[in-house]
Structure prediction request, 656 residues.
Amino acid sequence: MTAVAVASGARIRPRLGLGLSRLITYTFLLAFVLYVLSPFLAILVTSIAQDWFGGRILPGSLTLRWFDWAFNVTNLPGVMANSFIIAGLTIAISLVIGIPTAWALGRRHVRARNVLMTLILLPKTVPPITFALGLSREFYSFDLVDTHLGVALAHTTLALPFVVLIMSATFAGLDERVLEAGRVCGGNWFRNLVHLVLPMAMPGLMASVLFTFVTSFNEFTLTLVTYGPDTLTLTVQTYLAIGDGFLEVASAISVVLLVPSVILLLLIQRQIRPENILGGVKGL
Amino acid sequence: MGAMIELVDVVKRYGDVVACNRLNLAVDQGELVTLLGASGCGKTTALRCITGSLRPDGGRIIIDGRDVTDVPTHKRNIGVVFQNFALFPHLTVVDNVGYPLRVRGVRSAERRERAIEALRLVRLDGLGGRFPRELSGGQQQRVGLARAIVYEPTVILFDEPLSNLDAKLRLEMREEIASLKDRLGFTSIYVTHDQEEALSLSDRIAVMKDGVIHQVGRPTEIYAEPRTSFVAEFLGNPNRLTGVCVERIQDQVVVEADGQRIVATDASGTLAIGDRAVVYVRPESVRIQDGDASPDGTTLRATVVRSAFLGDSTEYILALSDKVNWHLRLDHATRLAVGEEVNLVAPRPGGRAFALAGSPVDGSPDVALGEQ
Prediction:
């Protein structure tokens, strides 16, 4: 009796409510999507638009001139190279410091572990400009300003927390018995590292590399206080172009700047699933 | 036929807890010796000392005549079958089994061939291309077994290998391990808390408690002639009676409890008249005596309290006194009614008597059991 009543109620009710609730849902969804996407849309259109002033809804015509300017007038290839070199260095430094730290935090009993974790997270939690100010003073005294290494070191302070968090979780998730099995099978620490630990930690490593890359590539505040003519990055170049009043060129550079983030987003959506590699082993 | 594995006075402490207290054990070539005990008895700690995952605080570990106490795990040439299988999740079954060969520099083609041969031995032919997560628990443990035997290690250690399997699979894998051992003749130490597993698989059993080996012996020996009250209590499900030793007849003593008397073998040979003693009697060695109590006064009077039909037999709970209940399994030829009074005897060798509080047995600390 009750089951029948519930079933029939469930059949009628949604039909009445469906139209309205759907309408509300989709309206909010659409508003949200527009809100998130409209800046990107504005940049995209600006970067290829000509004669788009004075309240015109659509640009008069399309052009690649702004990209041309970006590439030739602002030396975009050189700036891109800087961004890539700095991102590469940031990845290298972050992994070299972050992986052993993460191993210690994830797999060993570390005293004052919480204090350590807070310290690592500090650069990410304080106002960036405060941190940048202190950093720039340090860097001037060490002659690190306007060097790739210097900018990369600044970026490392922001990327390292990601690496430590991701990798310590990854390492903590490794089964000690599996590592013991590797030793029992006769593998020395190096072979076990190469054949067992690295492959098992690969999802975490990939995530660390990608997040570090994007953090560095998109970083602005700390770059602003550590860059110089030789270490101009895409973000700073965009800023300078805006300051010079070349909104169209700034948009063109921004579009280039967006590419890695979009690629990362797609990768995250389909690739980085630790359970694809680690999951589903019975008896754990 | 020298010992393949030898533990000499092995000590391992965790802070104030002594997990292994001067363990001595020698395992001969081709022998399977079980470390049997409840969780926390130190058996796994002992095993991990043998694998090299733990460094003992004292004593030596000798494998095949070589002192390996300070040798790192990967140079000990041992195989381990783990409770949680511990397979490499990112490698296929063939690569899992081939890993010990890979680190030994065996070339790819031969590696594959030997891995497939090992998989055939554990009856997993044709599953080599799968990943561990695509296999059932039982299959995963077979892979673990194949990985442990493929490089013909000096010894194979089993760390509760069946605990993560369900009852039916457990039986099947037990058979599998027994038959592999017969075919390959490996030397092994097997750690378990499951006494049935230990009794059925082992050549010898070492019963452990609180970091101490209480007794080492063949399964029949351990079962029939426990040397400490712990071993007697731990194996099987014995009936017990606590009382005072009132008489000694050679190696037997008479223990009196609540006006009842029972004859039992003095397990330690140290009981004196007037000592408090506990007697353990295996249910299968208890008989119902027809007719009257025997004149020597060593029959026990009991009242049937409860019966439970078990299919092939019936289990009866019999009250010897207000506090003491015994259990007894009888085939259907004998039927007892609840409330009926019966006379029980435990013919030689019958029960085994232990001192309740007294001198230690064989250097082992006395296991004081609380009175009921």
Summary: Residues 167-184 of chain B form the longest helix (18 residues). The two ends of chain B are 47 Å apart (CA to CA). Residues 358-372 of chain B have pLDDT under 50 and may be disordered.
